[in-house]
Amino acid sequence: MLGKYCLLFSFFIPHLCEAITRPPAVAGRWYSADKNSLKKEIKSFLKNVNLPPLPEKINALIVPHAGYTFSGQTAAYAYKAIAGKHYKRVVIFAPSHYAHFYGASTFDVEAYETPLGKVFVDRKIVKALLKEPIFNEYVVAHLREHAIEAQLPFLQMVLKEFKLIPVLIGNINKKDLKEMAKIIKKVFNDKIKDTLFIASSDFTHFGPAYGYVPFKEKVPENIKKLDMDAIKFILKIDPEGFLNYVKEKKATICGIYPIALTLWLLPEKAKGYLLHYTTSGKIIGDYTNSVSYAAIVLDKFSLTKEEKKALLKLARFTLTYYFEHNKLPDLSEIPIKLTPALKEKKGAFVTLKKHGKLRGCIGFIMPLFPLYEAVMQASLRAAFNDPRFFPLDKSELSQIKIEISVLGPIIPVKKTEEIKIGRDGLIVKMGNYQGLLLPQVATELNLNRIQFLELTCRKAGLPPWAWKDKDTLIYRFSAEVFGEN
What we know:
By secondary structure, this protein is an alpha+beta fold. Helix content is 37%, strand content 22%. The termini are far apart.
């Protein structure tokens, strides 16, 4: 595919045409061209990072792409969050700084090269994207572009083997950007779960050099406000709000479209975490011209291993405490650290099993309480208020295993084909009758979709075929399930 470009560019970059490898364009200027010096620099950045509790699986990052002197430390926060994790492929969405075009441009080369070696391209995915009308291959746009290249040495340092899909986003309207997200989901299909998406973007470009001077007083404070108001839309996964804000403020965020596209690709009820923020003005002590940098992690709600252990510990502590004091423990007495995720309101169920058999299961469908409180209350109700069982006796406590299910959003089912065994739990409701089954029930009993629907109807006290009735309401939900041992 590159053959027709070789004559044109061979004088400047013969390496590209001979090996179909895109050589580094900014090594020695934006980051060190020496392999050992580059490794040392990145290791130093990563060592300086202290992260808050984060989800185990991270779907996407927003990372700056300036020279490492300015944005390297900020970028390190995002990359340390994924260090050691496994992704089969990494898609980098970046703005095009050197060429103007409409839509998206990907690059069908064998690899991108950095001082740390080659990063091989997933050419199968690239070729599939190039079959879509909104994707093209504007070679000249990729040859000098730093916004993708700046991410590669960090990725080489923190990840194991992965393949790259480089995508530059040119000018585009909102309708076509949303359509692009649909196309990417279609092309990736199930591969999307093993894929990391990166939006490469700096934030506010302030000063005469960028033609953007919306204020002349309290410059550092006003720059930060501009950025943080934009970041608020990102953290709550609101691409529409983000695009509208950028348009209203005429904000000079170079990766507007890569960021919005990434937000549209996230799973339901995703969440953002701002890990680090700074400006070049702060770094050099001069705000005449300043560029802002932010490191953001994006993912669906997920608890860390430590938070899961803490909730299981809290559930058992609650039962033990109740047997001794006949009441719930006070907040000051609970033996776990309450992280922001544990304080977030969530639906949750607690399941008790004795010798592998169900001994009680009750919870809250809707997010009525902070998660830690929902687990405490559900633990007691599962032990003492499940009408299918006698109340738990203190002598049984050592034989009980506890399982917790943290519920995702409740989603109406329009077509039963939407229901996915292993992912979804079900709620069936008709009049005053309602039944709920957690996702793990279908997999534990090896049920297919119809059998799962029928069993949920029975749980509601309805005939098994009631799910077909036009007056029956069906809902699905995901759940994060974890237990003792």
